[in-house]
Design a protein that fits this description.
Largest interface: A-B, 44 and 41 residues
Shape of chain B: flat
Order of helices and strands of chain C: HHHHHHHHHHHHH
Chains: A alpha+beta (about 500), B mainly alpha (about 300), C mainly alpha (about 300)
Number of helices of chain B: 14
Number of strands of chain B: 0
Structural class of chain C: mainly alpha
Order of helices and strands of chain B: HHHHHHHHHHHHHH
Strand content of chain B: under 5%
Radius of gyration of chain B: 24 Å
Largest sheet of chain C: none
Structural class of chain B: mainly alpha
Number of strands of chain C: 0
Shape of chain C: elongated
Oligomer: heterotrimer
Distance between the termini of chain B: 11 Å
């Protein structure tokens, strides 16, 4: 019974050492060490150069936007702009806040805003994600604290971008140093100042003591934050238990129970708007015959027990989603969606009707933890569909989908770049872009109408039609919203948010 | 001798070209680099523009030739993902991997030479059996498993050693042992075999007969001779270790070349993968070339043949 | 030809002829060699368990390794006090599959990977090595170049790149490893063939006008088979460990295939809290590789002793 001994020893020792939590920085000098990066390092911290999601936490610490979106209610509130007014269909006027200073002492005024907006909207400057900025026509200075923003066309989602990816840069500094200088020594107005950056390794911040002008983002709760890029989740957990870091957010649902059981540590789960779905190759690029049939896709929708998956594997406050978007997003009407309850008998009947009474073989792709896919495959096997799994790195899978199209069925997800508007997800996937595997003209048309009309009711009506058709045709089987799992030292105080944006400066130590 | 040196250098160079060519074709099969550069939100037109801009629309051999010419000048291009010169990224990390590889081989030698010598002094004794047992067991232990066990024991239970990072010497202890122990069985066996052979040779018998103390005979005469092939093998192992560092660096978050290559593979960052393969291959080629030349210098018959 | 073959195969000296027959000597050596015996017994055991797994399943002794139920996931093995189930002796994995059944079926995959890789690389290496050794000269130079090129490649890195390029599946992994692990075969075969080429009976065969393939297959091959087997065991162990490391980083065999390397990868998620999830597949892997190594070591002593 050597194994039992080992197991007891392991549990005992873990518990024992946890009790004697060494005073490694943390509450004593009001600093915080965070592990980040299981999705990979930030390639470039300049907000307009990096293309991937990982840069968001950095950008929110260092810079501010014109508008603040309240993370719980999704209401727009003043940030660097104190007020706004729509002058015409395509022009907004913003009143700017006085008395704000950048980290290098440069005062914030209309010049910074005009410079930033005009710089990013100029395609020659090569902002990597053009979608974020290509709706801006021009920004004009009215006076030192007033700016007019002209859009190329009526753009109903403008505030989602102005409160999200568009951060304001200091004009003099950015003009001098450019994106690479900004990457080496970022300067913003945000709650934390950058002390040092070692790409792919470590980011050190200190509190911005000038951040006292009543920002809705709040002042920093700690004096110093170190964010370490640790790719391996197990290494992160080991560091957490060894006292090397204070919090991690990359762990799985099981770890929540396990870490939560260790004295001195707490863990919690928080739902996000990241929406998981099974995509089908309905446009038949893969040449997989069964999946091209509606009845087969419906059968699969009935065969998969999403409730049990959510309850046993995802857990937390995740729920089954029936829409090809997250229900809080603008236009995402749950009533419009066709819903599929778990019913293996019905699935079998549908398969028989489609001409596959004995099921068929299918290749199934994912980049997420295999256990989710395996649970789905287990359900499919029960109605006779034999799926084989290929797990690939994210970019390799996207490549295969876009260029080869040989993926008849895939479990993917989309975080909508934290934008609370359906256009950030459904329009991305169903407007015949590179990620559209349904290629449905009707859906693309409705979405286009919804994206460009400035009348909210017209938008909603068009989006509802798109939702109905996408779910009716089962181009996607929406699965569940993802849950972010946090493990941390119990003295730490923090609030997770549904928009998946970590706000490290708000984390603090309980006194 | 000069002709031999030139010939061997030419062959070594040819090997590097073939290795690079194979990796180049393989990695261009692995994924569309334009998509990596474009990032998550790129449209089809963006991708097409990138393809033209970076020259991915040209035939593969032209791209390879282009790459090779620049690589000769020390320019490995720019990382698709980090948009930094690959040479800089490698320069930043190569020291860590070299240090790790060097420490690991040192560890292996420090363990294997005394053990091999002890075993050779009393063949088939308990010590010999024990050494063999360790060797056989060591070879069957998966490196990553051993690394994880150390991490649990020394990192979490006893909190003796830091788990991840590379900032001071303590960070290198566990990775060194994890990487080094795998080389010990081979080195130990070679030491043992070499020592047995040398101890049975005439000049050792002569030395003993002259009444020299056993210690002097063992260290000054026997070990010095038996150790040469061991050190040569260790040099070759050093090349292998750089490759083996991928798993270890990933586990301990020691961000050297091994970690970099793993990270680059995950995001199809081909220039990085390409450059690291070339560097690892160069290490092997240069080390073997040096060993060959040394041999030829010691034994002139080789270069004539 | 058999007469001509005697000098090498037997290489008998006067005192050896007076000794007991070679067979009985071999038998004696085999039974005196514990590591060979232990290795062989364990290997036979693992192989029969792997081959008989479907029979065990038919008898109901083990479960279907793919049968999952997320409601009974991560049950503990029997020695724990809580969360155990009598029908799952060694617990269940993260989607509720029986751990013991997966370990039993996992033996199949590990052996399959080891044996197939060894066969592929053995074939490539032997062909290259024997060709180089037999013909020498230019052929040898070319083969030497190929061997050196292969040795210069960082196997693990290139194998990972290949798996990314061709997609991870059991056969891709086997093929990639097979294409990479032939170097030792080639080196050993080359030097042995060189020695054998100059032996009198081979020269005699050549003088008698025997065709080259005939000489290689009939005269040279029987002499190298001992060394070949020893190298084969080393490479088999090597392949199994490399595959486990690939699977560990997610570049190996894909789930839900029951495979020890993959189980280690999956269990690693729980290793700090449920150590048995990695201890069990790790132990299986360790025992298998250990058995192969012991077998190989013993084999070396048993078959190659006479060459010293």
């Amino acid at each position: 019974m050597k194994l039992r001994h080992l197991a007891t020893l392991a549990t005992g020792a873990v518990t024992a050492t946890m009790l004697s939590t060494a005073a490694l920085a943390g509450p004593d000098d009001n600093s915080l060490v965070i592990a980040w990066g299981s999705t990979g390092p930030i390639e470039h911290v300049d907000n307009y150069v990096n293309t991937n999601r990982t840069g968001i936490w950095f950008s929110r610490m260092v810079w501010d936007q014109l508008i603040y979106r309240e993370p719980k209610t999704f209401e727009y509130k003043p940030l660097l702009a104190t007020g706004w007014e729509q002058l015409s269909d395509t022009v907004w006027q913003f009143k700017l806040r006085e008395g704000v200073k950048f980290h290098n002492g440069e005062p914030f005024d209309a010049d910074d805003v005009v410079y930033t907006l005009n710089w990013i909207s100029n395609p020659e400057n090569g902002v990597k994600v053009q979608r974020n900025v290509n709706w801006i026509k021009e920004a004009r200075k009215v006076d030192q604290y007033t700016v007019d923003l002209e859009m190329k066309r009526p753009f109903p989602q403008a505030f989602e971008f102005l409160s999200g990816p568009i951060t304001i840069y200091p004009n003099e500094y950015y003009e001098k140093v450019g994106p690479d200088g900004m990457h080496k020594a970022p300067v913003g107005t945000g709650p934390m100042k950058v002390v040092s950056i070692t790409t792919a390794e470590e980011y050190v911040f200190e509190k911005n003591t000038d951040y006292t002008w009543g920002s809705p983002k709040g002042e920093a709760q700690v004096d110093k934050i170190v964010v370490r890029e640790i790719a391996d989740v197990q290494t992160q957990i080991a560091e957490l238990l060894a006292g090397g870091i204070d919090i991690t957010a990359d762990i799985s649902a099981d770890h929540v129970d396990q870490i939560g059981g260790v004295p001195g540590y707490t863990a919690l789960q928080a739902g996000t708007m990241r929406t998981g779905y099974i995509g089908f190759d309905a446009a038949n690029r893969s040449g997989h015959e069964p999946v091209n049939k509606l009845k087969v896709r419906q059968a699969m929708a009935h065969a998969i027990d999403r409730e049990s998956l959510v309850k046993n594997l995802i857990r937390g406050d995740a729920g089954v989603i029936h829409t090809p978007c997250f229900p809080t997003q603008f236009g995402c009407s749950v009533d419009a969606a066709v819903k599929y309850e778990f019913d293996p008998d019905k699935a079998k009947a549908l398969l028989a009707e489609a001409g596959y009474p004995d099921g068929f073989d299918i290749e199934f792709y994912t980049f997420r933890p295999a256990d989710w896919a395996e649970a789905i495959m287990g359900d499919l096997a029960k109605v006779g569909i034999k799926a084989t799994l290929t797990k690939m790195p994210y970019f390799a899978l996207r490549d295969k989908q876009r260029n080869e199209g040989t993926t008849p069925m895939f479990l993917m997800d989309w975080g909508s770049y934290s934008m609370n508007d359906m256009s950030a997800i459904t329009s991305h996937f169903f407007k015949k872009g590179p990620d559209d595997f349904a290629l449905d003209d009707d859906v693309a048309g409705w979405l286009e109408a919804g994206d460009t009309n400035s009348d909210p009711d017209v938008r909603k009506a068009n989006y509802a039609k798109a939702i109905e058709k996408i779910t009716g045709e089962v181009y996607w089987l929406p699965m569940f919203n993802h849950v972010r799992n946090y493990g941390y030292r119990e003295e730490l105080e923090f609030t997770p948010y549904q928009d998946e944006i970590p706000r490290f400066w708000q984390y603090g130590w309980k006194s | 001798m000069l002709a031999y040196t030139l010939k061997r250098t030419f062959v070594a160079f040819l090997i590097l070209i073939v290795v690079s060519g194979l990796t180049f074709s393989l990695s261009h099969l692995a994924g569309d680099p334009a998509l990596t550069i474009g990032g998550e939100q790129a449209s089809d037109e963006d991708i097409e523009a990138i393809r033209v801009l970076y020259g991915f629309d040209r035939p593969l051999y032209v791209q390879f030739f282009d790459w090779g010419l620049k690589a000769l000048q020390g320019d490995f291009g720019e990382s698709y993902h980090y948009r930094q010169p690959v040479a800089d990224m490698i320069g930043e990390r190569i020291g860590r991997t070299m240090l790790l590889g060097f420490l690991a081989i040192l560890f292996a030698l420090v363990v294997s030479i005394p053990m091999g010598t002890l075993a050779a002094m009393r063949p088939n004794s308990l010590i010999d059996r024990f050494a063999l047992l360790i060797a056989v067991f060591g070879q069957a232990l998966p490196t990553f498993w051993f690394a994880l066990m150390m991490m649990i024991v020394f990192g979490i239970w006893w909190r003796m050693l830091p788990i991840s990072g590379h900032t001071d010497w303590a960070h290198y202890v566990m990775p060194t042992i994890a990487l080094g122990y795998y080389a010990t069985p081979a080195l130990m066996r070679l030491t043992r075999a070499g020592m047995i052979e040398v101890l049975a040779s005439d000049y050792i018998r002569t030395a003993r007969a002259k009444g020299l103390s056993p210690t002097v005979v063992l260290f000054k005469h026997a070990l010095r001779n038996a150790i040469i092939p061991v050190v040569a093998l260790a040099a070759v192992w050093f090349g292998f270790m750089l490759g083996g560092s991928i798993v270890i660096e990933t586990i301990f978050n020691l961000k050297g070349l091994g970690w970099l290559s793993y990270d680059a593979l995950l995001r199809s960052d081909l220039p990085v993968v390409q450059a690291i393969v070339l560097i690892f291959a160069s290490f092997y080629v240069v080390l073997t070339l040096l060993a060959d030349l040394l041999n030829a210098w010691l034994d002139p018959r080789i270069s004539v043949k | 030809m058999t007469d001509a073959a005697l000098p090498f195969r037997g290489r008998k000296t006067a005192e050896e002829i007076l000794e007991p027959s070679p067979m009985s000597k071999l038998r004696k050596r085999v039974f005196k060699n514990y590591s060979f015996l232990i290795g062989a017994v364990i290997l036979v055991l693992i192989t029969s368990v792997a081959l008989l797994a479907p029979v065990f399943e038919a008898f109901g002794w083990i479960h279907d390794p793919y049968d999952q139920d997320t409601a009974r996931r991560l049950l503990n093995p029997f020695w724990y006090e809580t969360k155990t189930a009598p029908e799952h002796l060694l617990g269940t994995d993260k989607v509720g599959r029986d751990y013991f059944s997966r370990l039993v079926y996992g033996a199949q995959i590990s052996l399959l990977i080891g044996v197939s890789t060894m066969l592929i690389s053995g074939f490539i290496g032997t062909v290259l090595g024997v060709t180089a050794g037999y013909f020498g000269g230019r052929v040898d130079m070319v083969v030497n170049f190929i061997i050196n090129t292969r040795l210069a490649m960082p196997v693990f890195l290139v194998a990972m790149a290949a798996v990314v390029a061709f997609g991870a599946s059991l056969w891709v992994v086997i093929l990639v490893l097979g294409l990479f692990l032939w170097d030792r075969f080639a080196v050993v075969m080359r030097s042995i063939t060189m020695q054998a080429r100059d032996l009198d009976y081979v020269k005699a065969a050549r003088a008698m006008g025997c065709s080259t393939p005939y000489i290689i297959v009939r005269e040279i091959f029987p002499n190298v088979i001992g060394s070949l087997t020893v190298v084969a065991t080393v490479e088999m162990a090597n392949a199994i460990l490399l595959e486990a490391a690939l699977s560990f980083l997610g570049f190996g065999v894909q789930p839900p295939t029951p495979n020890w390397g993959l189980m280690l990868n999956e269990g690693r998620e729980y290793m700090l809290f449920l150590p048995w999830t990695v201890a069990l597949p790790g132990a299986c892997l360790f025992v298998l590789v250990l058995a192969i190594n012991l077998f190989g070591d013993g084999l070396r002593d048993v078959t190659l002793e006479r060459e010293r």
